[in-house]
Amino acid sequence: MRYAYDPSATGAARIRLISPAESELDSNARRNLRNVRRDADGDIWCASAKMRGSTNVRIVSEDATSITYAFTPSPAQVGGERAAGFVRHLRAEARVLKETEDVASIRLSAPAPFRASVARIDRFDMRVRCDLAANG
Questions:
Q1: What is the pLDDT of residues 21-33, one digit of tens each?
Q2: Minimal CA–CA distance to 31: which of 76, 73, 74, 1?
Q3: Is the pLDDT reported for residue 122 higher than 80?
Q4: In angstroms, rounded to a whole number, what is the distance separating the alpha carbons of residues 126 and 136?
Q5: What is the dihedral of CA 42, 86, 33, 25, to 10 degrees?
Q6: Concatenated DSSP letters for the chain?
Q7: pLDDT digit string (tens) for 48-58?
Q8: Residue 45 in contact with residue 51, Cβ under 8 Å?
Q9: Average pLDDT of 102-117?
Q10: What CA–CA distance (Å, rounded) separates 121 from 31?
């Protein structure tokens, strides 16, 4: 599922589904989309204090403008109690701009297949690009 986040919208309208069409989603995907839309109000990961307090943080790359950190995400960072059963399978990276210390991107991935609740996840790779809003 691919969607875009619109910070100028409010509530569930902040999430616009890009693909597949909403009519093509199965019941689990529709439920996941409803959850994403429900949780869309407030700060997103790029601006959220939830990304602080990570464990096992290490620098994995650095260039003239940014530093990329890898870390082990916690359930609170990923989705609260409902993430407790699968977060141990995930790895996270955050790219931070040196000049402003803003988060430029976040990636959550699973290096291997895993079972979460009643589903087997063969591949998980979520990438979030964090663009600054017009008001900074």
A1: 889 989 888 888 8
A2: 1
A3: yes
A4: 24
A5: 170
A6: -EEEE-TTS-GGGGEEEEES-GGG--HHHHHHHHHHHHTTSS--GGG-GGGSS-EEEEEEEE-SSEEEEEEE--HHHHTGGGGTTTGGG-EEEEEEETTT--EEEEEEE-SS-EEETTEEES--EEEEE-PPPTT-
A7: 556 666 778 89
A8: yes
A9: 88
A10: 16
Query: pTM for this one?
Result: 0.65
CA distance 83 to 107: 16
CB atoms within 10 A of CB 86: 19
Instruction: Report the C-alpha gap between 122 and 124 in whole angstroms.
Output: 7
- Amino acid identity, residue 92? A
Q: What is the reported pLDDT for 44?
A: 56
**What would the two tokens of residue 100 be?**
């402003």
